[in-house]
Design goal:
It holds the Pfam family MMR_HSR1. GTPase that associates with the 50S ribosomal subunit and may have a role during protein synthesis or ribosome biogenesis. Monomer. Associates with the 50S ribosomal subunit. The chain is of the alpha/beta class. It folds into four domains: 111 residues, GTPase HflX, N-terminal domain (Rossmann fold), CATH 3.40.50; 73 residues; 166 residues, P-loop containing nucleotide triphosphate hydrolases (Rossmann fold, 3-Layer(aba) Sandwich); 70 residues, 2-Layer Sandwich (Alpha-Beta Plaits), CATH 3.30.70. The chain has 16 helices and 15 strands. The protein has a six-stranded mixed β-sheet, with helices on both faces. Strands 2-1-3-4 form a four-stranded parallel β-sheet, with helices on both faces. It has a three-stranded antiparallel β-sheet with strand order 11-13-12. Helix 5 packs antiparallel against helix 8. The longest helix has 40 residues.
């Protein structure tokens, strides 16, 4: 039977002790103190009671325990004093580090890392079939290299009889613990393969839906931002929707799309997406590929930023970096400076607007600034034109037609296999034509067949 994702922690609440680690050679967008404060919020979102904290700055991680031996001993004492049930590290632990730390702290205390904590939160908040599949896949891919610990204990408890049999009789049988470990690994690998197949079906369905949406010529705007920045509140305000909203991290995971009419009468689609966070687990990024593609296929991004947060600039950088990593860095962005109703000094709005270019101060809660935000969005999509030169293969005839229908063509040059078009495009089409900005060179094959070759801007 396949291992199951742990159920959400019940009552009484477990007591958590947090450990921050800063490796000087690995810079982070947030300071260690701020990152540890964020870990505290994550623990509280997971319904854990934080009973203590410790941190250490290191030039390099300890090969066995990540932190130094002296710090390990210090934390052991603090765990006894606070009666902690679980230790959570504010970084991803390698299987070796986790195993060694569990041995140091004793079997009564569980050792988790930031990734495991975020996975637990995602498991609590995933409600749709797609969301559950994505979280389960991320959990198994995280869990697979960490199976050794449990079955090593089993092998020790059974005395490793299989190994002795092999040495005495020459049969070479594996011990029962090792056998069970391999069985469990195979089961998890089978489950991972199944989940990937199911999510590929979801991805294909989303792609078909996006293609139909493209044909309707309705622009898509994705709301992106740091977790708890107010994206769902903004969607509710724009579309008079009832998307779930809570003052906690990762309150919503599943993308929600709503139709909105802009001031000039244009209809657009707004999509609320999963929030980003620093040190976002790679397993989650991979598992949520189908969801994140909603962002990469957008015509415009509205980056919702909580301007009242003390680390607003750092959070902005984390989101921009994540957008680059998932392939959305070329999509036009408008920054919505959210929660201005909470600013103690209203004059600070002007300074914020100068700090973040292409920004609009708003309050998704009160509605302040929303009309201006919609006006700026409409201008960016339908009124602002940007110069663009694209090289489109003749096989992409619909894209050639799209440029002629909605752009302002200045020059057309025909080549063997493709056409180069220079002109102006409205903002809503910039992202769609981005893949065709690379030059194409025609190469003659031995059979005299000409094929376009991507030169990657050479």
């Amino acid at each position: 039977m396949s291992p199951k994702i742990p159920e959400p922690t019940g009552f009484p609440r477990e007591r958590a002790f947090l450990v921050g680690v800063e490796i000087r050679s690995e810079p982070s967008p947030l300071s260690m103190e701020d990152s540890l404060a964020e870990l505290r919020l994550l623990a509280q979102t997971a319904d854990l009671e934080v009973v203590g904290e410790a941190y250490q700055r290191l030039d390099r991680p300890h090969p066995d325990t990540l932190i130094g031996k002296g710090k390990v001993e210090e934390i052991k004492v603090l765990l006894e004093e606070t009666a902690a049930d679980v230790v959570i590290f504010d970084t991803e632990l390698s299987p070796r580090h986790q195993r060694e730390l569990e041995e140091q702290f004793g079997n009564q205390v569980r050792v988790l890392d930031r990734t495991a904590l975020i996975l637990d939160i995602f498991a609590r908040h995933a409600h749709t079939r797609e969301g559950i599949l994505q979280v389960e896949l991320a959990f198994y891919e995280y869990r697979l290299p960490r199976l050794t610990r449990a079955w090593t204990n089993l092998a020790q408890q059974t005395g490793g009889g299989g190994g002795r049999t092999g040495s005495q009789g020459g049969v070479g049988l594996r011990g029962p613990g090792e056998t069970q470990l391999e069985v469990d690994r195979r089961e998890i690998r089978r489950r991972i393969a199944f989940l990937k197949r199911e999510l590929e079906k979801v991805r294909a369905h989303r792609q078909r839906y996006r293609q139909q949406r493209r044909k309707s010529q309705v622009p898509v705007i994705s709301l992106v931002g740091y977790t708890n920045a107010g994206k769902s509140t903004l969607l509710n305000r724009l579309a008079r929707a009832q998307v779930y909203v809570a003052d906690q991290l990762f309150a919503t995971l599943d993308p929600t799309t709503r139709r909105v009419e802009l001031p000039g009468g244009h209809i657009v689609l707004f999509t609320d997406t999963v929030g980003f966070i620093q040190k976002l687990p790679t397993q989650l990024v991979a598992a949520f590929r189908a969801t994140l593609e909603e962002i990469t296929e957008s015509d415009l991004l509205v980056h919702v930023l909580d301007v009242t947060h003390p680390n607003a600039v750092e959070q902005w950088k984390v989101v921009q970096q994540t957008l680059e990593e998932i392939g959305a860095g070329a999509i036009p962005v408008i920054t919505a400076l959210n929660k201005i109703d909470r600013l103690p000094n209203p004059s600070a709005i002007q300074a914020l607007s100068e700090t973040f270019l292409h920004s609009v101060p708003i309050s998704a809660l009160t509605g302040e600034g929303i009309p201006e935000l919609l006006r700026v969005i409409e201008t960016a999509l339908f009124e602002d034109y940007s110069p663009m030169t694209v090289h489109i293969p003749y096989t992409e005839g619909h894209m050639i037609s799209l440029f002629h229908e909605h752009g302002k063509v200045e020059r057309v040059t025909h080549h063997d296999g493709y056409v180069t078009i220079r002109g102006l495009l409205p903002g809503r089409l910039i992202a769609r034509f981005q893949p065709f900005t690379r030059r194409i060179k025609t190469v003659t094959q031995p059979d005299n067949v000409h094929e376009p070759v991507d030169l990657s801007d050479s």
